[in-house]
Design a protein that fits this description.
The chain is an all-alpha fold. The chain is 71% helix and 0% strand.
Length: 75
């Protein structure tokens, strides 16, 4: 475990307290850590894999569409 940590480094970013609080709150709402969200942002910026946040957004959109469809079918 310590060996893995030695291969990682820390990135510090200064943000306004309100922005930080909103960021942490949204990450928590999504059941994620701030670190995982930031890593997804970095990977996406570098042209890497699809981020978890993109998949979460797509899942939420599908759930809304399904809910709408169920409502229309029941009416």
């Amino acid at each position: 475990m310590q060996e893995e940590r030695d291969k990682e480094s820390r990135v510090s970013v200064r943000v306004e307290p309100e922005l930080r609080a909103a960021f942490y709150a949204k990450a928590q709402e999504e059941g994620r850590t701030a670190t995982s969200v930031i890593i997804d942002f970095i990977n996406q910026y570098l042209g890497g894999r699809t981020s978890i946040s993109e998949l979460t957004e797509l899942r939420q959109r599908v759930e809304r569409i399904e809910a709408t469809q169920r409502g229309e079918l029941m009416a």
